[in-house]
Every structure is written in C-alpha cells, then in structure tokens.
Amino acid sequence: MSATDNPAMVTVVPRKRRTVEMFLVLFASALSLAAYAQVDLNVQGHLPTNLTLVAVIAFVLPLLAHAAIRWRVPYADPVILPCATLLNGLGLTMIHRIDLINDPPSTGATQQLLWTVLGIALLIVVVAVIRDHRPLQGFTYTLGLVGLVLLLLPLVPGISSGDVGGAQIWIHLGPLSFQPAEVSKVLLAIAFASYLVEKRDVLALAGWRVLGIDLPRARDLGPILLVWLTTLAVLVFQNDLGTSLLFFGLFVTMLYVSTQRPGWAVIGLVLFAAGAVFGYFARGHVRIRVAIWLHPFANINESYQLIQAQFGLAWGGLLGRGLGEGRPGLTPLARSDFIATSLGEELGMAGLFAVIMIYGLIVSRGLRTALACREPFGKLLAAGLSFSFALQVFLIIGGVTRLLPLTGLTTPFMSQGGSSMIANWVVIGLLLIISHQVRRPVATTQDVDPGGELIFERPGQVSDSEETQAIPATRGTGGTADDDQPTQIHVRGGHR
Amino acid sequence: MSEITLTIVKVLFLALLWLFILFVASVIRSDLFGRAVPSADGARQLQTPDRPRRAKRTKGQPRVMTITNGPTAGTQAELAGGTIMIGRGADCQLLLDDDYVSTRHARVVAGGENGVYIEDLGSTNGTYVNGMRITAPTSITLQDTVRIGKTVLKLET
C-alpha cells in the first residue's frame, strides 16, 4: 500500500511563510530608515550624510537574522522578527533624535547600534545553535541559580554601581556597566518552566486544602518562597520596584499556567500585596513613587521628570509634532526610561498606540505558540516569556503615562541600554525556536495495517489552525497535552 | 521644510506604521484560517523520502519500541536512531506521563552487536524486564516485556 492511496492521510503542507517574513522585515527596515531620514530632515534641514551606510545596516542586519531563521528554523512564526525589527529601528531613531539635541550630538545611537548588532548576533546563535528548546529543560537548577545570583549581583560591594537614579540595579565590570536583571529574566523563565513541568503534579494535587484553596506541601513550597524572598530582597535592598514586580509576576503566572489552579494566582496576589505594603512602609523610595503618581504637582522637585513627560505627551497630541519637531530633551532620561513619551510627543497618540500594538502582536504570537505547543515545557516557556514581555511593556509604558506608579524598567528594544537589548533579542530567538518546533510538521508511524506495512500520517497539523482542530481528534479525552507528543520525527528531505 | 510638507510627511509616516500593523494582522489572519493545499503536493512530500527506509528494512528484526499498555498505549518510537530515551522529560522520544516515571527514566540502545538492550538511568521506581527489576543494561528481544511505572512496552518489528 503506498502512501498516496491511503484515504486517512492528511495532505496539508505547513506554511513556512518565510518570504512573507522577508517582505515584512524589508518593510520594517524601510520604515525605520524613513524615520531616520525624517529626523535629520526636520532637525538639520538636510538628509543625513551617512544615509547610505545607515541604509545598508538597517537592511542587512535584520536580513541576516531572517537568513538564519530561513536556514535553521524555517517553520518559525513569520511576524515576530519583523515586529522586533521595527521596534528596534524606531528605538534607534528616537535615541538618534535625542542625540541631536546636544551640541555636538552625543553618540548614544551608535552605542545602541553596537548592542543591536550583538543582540541580533545572539539571536542568530540561539536560532542556529540551540535550535530546539527541549534540551534546555536539563539545566533547571543551574540556570535558576545563575539567574538568582545575577539578580542579586548589584548588591555585591566591589562590582555594584551603587545607587543610580534611586535604584541599585547596575553592576560595572571595568568600563562596562550592565543590568544583570535583564539577562536573569530569560534564565529564570527557562528555569521556572522546567521546574514547574517537573513539579506541576505535586503542586496541583498534593497538599492540604485551606479556605477552598489548594496549598501545596511545605517542601514544594520552598522554591516558591525562595523566589518570593528574592524578589522582596530586590525590592528592599535594590529599591527596584519594577524588577521585583516583573519577576514575581512571571513566576506566579507560570505557576498558574502550569497547575491551572486559580489558588496560585490568589496566593501570588496576597504575597505581592504583602510585599508591596511592606515596601511602601519600609522604603521611602516606594512611597515617593506612589506619591508622585497620585499627586504629581504636589512636589515638583520629585516629579519633575514625570510632569515633563506628561507635557510632552500633551504637546504631541493625536498625530504628534512630527519626528524631530518635538522637544523630548526637556524630559530627563528621555532616551531610556521615558523613550515611550518621547515617541508619544513626536509621533503622537497614533504613533505610540502603533508601537504598543506591535508589542501586542509579538506577545500574541508568543501566546499563540504556547497554545499550540504540544509539550508542557515549551508551552510554559513560551507563555512565560511572552507574559514577562507583556508585563514589562505594561509596567513601563503604564508608568511613564501615569497609569501606574513609575517603575524603572526598560522599554524592550527601545530604551537605551545594552543588557535589555541583548536579553530581548534572546527572548525573540527562544520564541522563534519554540514556534518552529510547534509549527513544523510531525509524523508518527502507526502500524495500523496487520501486515506490518507502514502508514504515515500527520496527526498534529501544520499550518496552525488545523493544528488546534486536529488535536482533540488525536488525543484521548482524558489525556494531557503531552499525550500526543510526536513519538518520532522524520526528516523529510527537501524542505528542511 | 514648510509646515504643510512637514504635516504630510508626518501623517504619511504614521499611515505607513499602521499599514505595517495591518499587513502583520493579515498574515496572522491567513495563518489562522489555513490554506487549501493540492493533495498531490502533500502526497509527494510524504512519499518520496520514505522509500529507501522501507527497502532497507529486514524482516524479524526489532524496529520500534511500542507502548502496549498504559495511558499512552499505541505510541511508538523507532530504533533506527540508535537510542530511545524513555521518561517524563520533554526531550524523551517516548514520553510517559506517569508519576512513577522519572524525567529520564531509561534508555533503549539498538544497533550494536548485542542487539537491543535497555538500561535504567538511575530512576526512582526502577525498570522491570519480564517482572524483574534490572540493575545493569539488559538485552531485550521481541518476546520480552518491559514495565516502567504503569506503562508496559514491547519491541516490535
């Protein structure tokens, strides 16, 4: 019996959509370049002198990443890379625009470009070398420990940069300064994911039931309390509300996703509330942040930056002043923490919402990958990474627009800073490899013919909508998501 | 630049920004609803690479490890790769969702001179061949039954 006359065979070839990705990347690069040219045209009255060089860089860098994806993970999600490219390009443009305020212009954009190069290089490494996220599951405790150490590194006397802008989150090694929490975010997301995959059953089932909430056994609770205490230590000793919130939110969400118990979200919120109240009364820093959020005009000295940012947004209005026509320089730290309001001033609400929308698209594709993922580790990792990305964007953009108390987080891909840039490109790389593993065709062999003849069929589908529809059919009703883990994967010649 | 050009350029840029988002959204949309593919395409892709594999196969040799009993009965993994990892970890070829199974529980190695043998990787609850807990790599044939946790596995041709 040949494969062709088997009626059960599903004949849907996966959509790789690599060409679409290439066009979108080119579009994103062109947009970034247009923004760059517009800035110089408006500020200096002529096109930038190094336009050709910048154009080459703007097109070649993302295309290199695209080539790596086409080569190693051809089934990866096609819209993640273009979105990240555009965000990065707009961020670079904005930093360049703020550079031009100084006379002579500062070189922030050049530095940031170097970090971008490094970030894209790391993306290529992740895509080309790691390629499959599953082996990462073997390094649970190593990655977790390294992540926690990195998180607490800014407290170590010799290498700590001390108190910068109210928070102690930087380390310096020689001439380089680094924000280790950003890297730690990625490591801990991987560690949490593999830890929770191992422990999800005991966390969900074993333990006592108190007030309708399932509490886990004390020994399972240990690592969770350790994470909580670490984030509290970050809050108390590093004065960093944002990082503390980000890590704790990441962990609680992943707990919730893996155990599917709302009880965990409740415990998490209670622990967070306890930490926040403690922080509010124990640390003047947190109290000031809350005060300037609620009453920005009560104390102009403390909230100067935030007020300037609000004026900037108001001055930008619906369509913005136009790139290069606003005055983002009036806001201190316009190029790092407050880059979103600088964008809001020059591109207006329409532009800022577009940027938030692009963040949303990246997050939605990450969550889509998590939904479609058939094994728990990849599912949890994709969900955790995209959720932490979303939470970070929400906290910082919410902070600068005075929706939330301001927390000193970085705006992914935009604000000036190397550690954030490379960490986020690695996040994108991880999402790409997970989505490749999820979307690529899998084939299981099933000996349905009594004569022992092989029949190949494709259970989980390929272009992803069919996938979600096909899973209930192939999975037993009581089974968990990993029941239909492909038992083997054939290398199909020609298209891999 | 005059005020009017500035405004035009500004609005044009914003429009392009949103056009990008619309493009991305349409890509996602087409991804959601899938695409009809001529079935000949799929058939060709499925057929060609597998022929040599079938030709090489010899009768009577163990070819796959099959789960014959347990929650995931029917699942198979090919011995052609040389090694099959069995356990709860995502990197295992035979993934058993069973609380009595360790993350990397056991390993089946094929292709050597000794035929196929199974090796326990220091699991908590042990690996049983024909009801006996194994302590060293044990060779298995088509007749032997392997039990791991609540799952029973067999070699098959």
UniProtKB/TrEMBL annotation, chain A:
UniProt key word Methyltransferase: no
Name of the molecule in the record: Cell division protein RodA
Coiled coil: none
Major site of localization recorded for this protein: membrane
Transmembrane segments annotated in the record for this chain: 47-67, 79-98, 113-131, 138-156, 241-257, 264-282, 347-368, 380-401, 413-434
Localization (cell): Membrane
Molecular function GO labels: lipid-linked peptidoglycan transporter activity
Region (Disordered) location: 455-496
GO biological processes: cell division; regulation of cell shape
Keywords carried by this UniProt record: Cell cycle, Cell division, Cell shape, Membrane, Transmembrane, Transmembrane helix
Membrane topology of this protein: Multi-pass membrane protein
TrEMBL record, chain B:
Alphabetical UniProt keywords: Phosphoprotein
Residue intervals of the FHA domain: 84-134
UniProt cross-references to CDD domains, sorted A to Z: FHA
Pfam families membership: FHA
UniProt-annotated stretches for the region Disordered: 41-60
PROSITE patterns in the record: FHA_DOMAIN (PS50006)
Residues that span the membrane, as ranges: none
Alphabetized SUPFAM superfamilies for the sequence: SMAD/FHA domain
Name of the protein in its database record: FHA domain-containing protein
